[in-house]
Structure formats: structure tokens, C-alpha cells
Design goal:
It contains five helices and eight strands; from the N terminus they run E-E-E-E-H-E-H-E-H-E-H-E-H. With 159 residues, it is an alpha/beta fold.
């Protein structure tokens, strides 16, 4: 029984109750153009992001802000950090505030099903680069991430 099915430029992704089914067009060769840290407590969302973005990015995922900070300290630098608002240990906005202080050159993207009240202020203060409401289109996200890695940064989404 499928909970949600989405279509993406690379194929059909069906998120089922206990698994992720993927039918990708294999014509794209894997090549990481940038490193992304994706922090979300939803395991299925983390797996989907890895699968959908693997042709263009090296994606590392974790389920908590604490683990995300540890990865940022111990790993090769990340170009982009994407965080869900709802996390373990601290919320995603506070996590991205800390990331902005420690790694100001990193693009920081907050995702959430609801728009947190202080997200606009966090964008204006430079703590987050962009807010992306959930659910989001994977092909649009991939295009925005490509823009984030190019010299001309992508635009900011408003709530």
C-alpha cells in the first residue's frame, strides 16, 4: 500500500509504508558536484534525498542536529546543509543558526511542513539561506541546489 507517490525528472519514486521503490533513468552518470548534509528525523525522507540527488551530489544524512554538528566537524567540508525544522535534540532553525556561526560559507536550507514564525528574521539575519516548504518537488530542489553551487545563488523562497 503506497502512502505517497511523486514523479521526478529522473523517474518515478514511490514511498511505501516500509520501503522506497525507485525507477530511475540510468542514463545519468553519477558525479558529485558538491557535498550536502541532509538532517531529518524521517528515515524515508533521508533515503529519498540520497537516491534522488546521488547523480549530482554526495549526500550524507543523519537524524539529529547533534549528529549533524559532529559530521560538520569531522568530515570534509559540506557546501550545503539542509535541515528539517523538526529534529531530535534541537530544532532545525537553531541547528542552522549554529551552522551559520561555525561555517558561514555553507548554504543553509530549512525545510518544514509549516512555516516557523521566526524564519523570515533568520533569513534576514543570514542564519538560513532559504526556506523550502514540505512537501517539495525533488526536481525543483535539485535545480535549486545546482543554483546554490553556481556563482549566482538561487533565490529565496518566502513563506
Amino acid at each position: 500500500m503506497s502512502i505517497k507517490t511523486t514523479f521526478d525528472r529522473g523517474g518515478l519514486i514511490a514511498i511505501s509504508h516500509n520501503k522506497i521503490d525507485l525507477c530511475m533513468n540510468n542514463s545519468l552518470q553519477p558525479s558529485a558536484h558538491g557535498r550536502i548534509l541532509f538532517v531529518d528525523k524521517d528515515m524515508q525522507m533521508r533515503e529519498v534525498m540520497k537516491i534522488v540527488l546521488k547523480d549530482r551530489f554526495q549526500v550524507v544524512t543523519t537524524n539529529s542536529a547533534e549528529a549533524g554538528l559532529q559530521l560538520l566537524e569531522s568530515e570534509t567540508p559540506f557546501h550545503i546543509v539542509i535541515s528539517s525544522f523538526s529534529l531530535l535534540w534541537m530544532d532545525g532553525l537553531e541547528f542552522l543558526r549554529r551552522v551559520s556561526e561555525l561555517y558561514p560559507q555553507t548554504v543553509r536550507i530549512l525545510t518544514s511542513g509549516a512555516c516557523p514564525a521566526d524564519v523570515g528574521q533568520a533569513i534576514r539575519q543570514g542564519h538560513i539561506s532559504r526556506f523550502v516548504p514540505k512537501p517539495f518537488c525533488m526536481s525543483s530542489m535539485r535545480e535549486q541546489l545546482n543554483n546554490d553551487l553556481s556563482p549566482v545563488r538561487g533565490g529565496e523562497a518566502a513563506c
